[in-house]
Amino acid sequence: MYIIFDYDGTLHDTMIIYEPAFRAAEKHLLEIGKPLKKEFTAKDISDNLGRTFKEMWDKTAPDLDSETKYTLSKIIELKMNEMILQGQAKLYDGIKEVLEELSKKHTLIFLSNCRTSYKDMHRELFHLDDYFKAYYWAQKYPDTPKYEIFSQYIKKDFGEQSYIMVGDRFHDIEVATKNAIHSIGCLYGFAREHELDNATYFANKPKDILKIIESIENK
């Protein structure tokens, strides 16, 4: 089986480093006299996860000019990278065991809306090459949604296989619904209510992913 994993909110407990980075960008806007038009709660901030920077700022502050959006994105990127280097990034409990077990029998593929530096730092920090066969990420394929990265690149590289998509946001379930493959919706991530309703299976905790894959194998 070829198992495609989203990263943030599926493997990585992203809010630990993302909320402080977002707050740094928010502070910068105050300093330049362009404050956000609403107060953002942790829940509001977590709704950005799984989106590209462009999608995030188009949703969060659509009236900002492109130069300011770029500056804010760099502030977030650099702050998160700084916290990764400080060892503050954390995978969800049980994820390493899940990846280790699945990688013994299946091909694992990384698919994320992240930037290159972010992917590379996590790849090194958590030794992701021990588990993943290939990496696909948003900055490598600009303006290409995840479901098209799957159809245009992953399927081209690996051919017709038994694929399953694992993720916590609508982008991930969309990969499955638009390409007629199964999916596992990770309810412990950052999805809003009903966002994962179209998933084939549901994981309440990371180790449920392993149980679901095992049940599919035994059918």
UniProtKB/TrEMBL annotation:
Claim: Glycoprotein is one of the keywords in the record: no
Keywords: Hydrolase
Entries under Pfam families matching the protein: HAD_2
MF (Gene Ontology): phosphoglycolate phosphatase activity
Keyword Hydrolase listed: yes
GO process annotations (BP): DNA repair
SUPFAM superfamilies from the UniProt entry: HAD-like (SSF56784)
Superkingdom of the source species: Bacteria
One GO location term (cellular component): cytosol
Gene3D superfamilies: HAD superfamily/HAD-like, Putative phosphatase, domain 2
Stated name of the protein: HAD family hydrolase
Native organism: Criibacterium bergeronii
